[in-house]
TrEMBL record:
Keyword Metal-binding: yes
Protein name: Glutamyl-aminopeptidase
Entry note: cofactor: Binds 2 divalent metal cations per subunit.
Family annotation (PANTHER family): AMINOPEPTIDASE, AMINOPEPTIDASE YPDE-RELATED
Transmembrane segments: none
Family recorded in the similarity comment: Belongs to the peptidase M42 family.
Domain of life: Bacteria
CDD domains: M42_Frv
GO molecular function, one term: aminopeptidase activity
InterPro entries to which the protein is assigned, alphabetical: Peptidase_M42 (IPR008007), Peptidase_M42_aminopept (IPR051464), Peptidase_M42_dom2 (IPR023367)
Residues reported in the UniProt entry to bind Zn(2+) 1: H70, D182, D237
Active site: E214
Amino acid sequence: MDLTKKETLKQMKILTEFHSAPGFENDLKDYIKSEMEPYADDFVYNKMGGFYAVKRSENPNAKKVMIAAHMDEVGFMITHITDNGMIQFTNLGGVAADIWQGQRLKVKNRNNEIITGVVASIPKHFRSGNEGLPEIKDLMLDIGSESANEVRERGIEIGDSIVPDTEFIQLSENRYAGKAWDNRYGCLLAIEILKLFKDIQLDVDLYVGANVQEEVGLRGARAAAEQIDPDIAFVVDCSPANDMKGAQQLSGQLGGGTLIRIKDGTMILKPSFRDYLLQLCDKQNINHQYYISPGGTDGGEIHKANSGIPTAVIGVCARYIHSSDSVFDIRDYYAARQLLFESVKSLDNQQIERLQYS
């Protein structure tokens, strides 16, 4: 099945503009599931909130392969509504405190409505010069209400979620900007990989889906891995690029291709899995780059589950992730999609056993 750039871009826009903070992924889950249904034989769900589409093999001895994205994005949760109608909040996921003043954020209220506000910022005219760096707990969201009662009349309460209010846009021929590319990249790839395998028989049972609450500590991944008990797993996630001043050693460069993540704060890629990916990149002429990260992905939990699950991250990098906007290169997405497609298509029982035990 062929996928057009127009289809991919339309899906990118829809997914990145979704409101899906950690713990509040249900609306996005329903959308992704609806996109996967025509290409899935079945679905499995876990009690954390994650779900996986299943494409079954005709091989009676098929091994199980897991492709894991995550649905959540960094965001906030409302903690207080002031008497004069301002909203205070705490972070959901790792964010810098000094980038939010003057930014537009959107609240999802109890009626599932989206309400936009602006994070308060002290004008230069009123600054003493001694303010220092803000803390998240000191920031306030202004939605134009004049009292706490007015805020609550708009369906907003303590515990509701907030994410950036950012439109997906094209910057140049190959580069785009939008919020939550970490990890709507993985959600998009999960949808498109099922489409690409629509008319292809695989030697493996393929489980493709997404976990919850990755941004607050990889919380949904273990439940999914223990439920599915895959023989091997691929994680599809977006990582920070550090190339604004040019290429930096193993820290991600836009346009450099898909990431071969050899080490991060939660997992070391098995040499046998590394070599498998590199051989496919060389054979298929897939643009790729080595990557090391101090952070982690759901692979950090998946690879430790049950008796151990060989896991590789097939990722992309983007600038300015965990902020109100990110910039990425669509060529990196295409490289990652091709590598994932070739990696799964090339698997059989013998290859999986090599990845498991060598």
